[in-house]
């Protein structure tokens, strides 16, 4: 069984979704947040 190309594997991952509102999250390097910016801002208030 051949291994899948790692680049292809990561490109085929589903987009990250905010569990609070369901909005797709723009992922950034070195960011492990699960919520979108808007929901994080609401929590800070």
From TrEMBL:
Lineage top rank: taxon: Bacteria
Pfam families linked to this entry: YhfH
Protein name: YhfH family protein
Lineage per the UniProt record: Bacteria, Bacillati, Bacillota, Bacilli, Bacillales
């Amino acid at each position: 069984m051949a291994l899948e190309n790692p680049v292809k594997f990561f490109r085929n991952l589903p987009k990250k979704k905010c569990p609070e509102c369901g909005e797709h999250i723009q992922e950034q390097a070195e960011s492990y947040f699960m919520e979108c910016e808007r929901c994080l801002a609401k929590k800070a208030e």
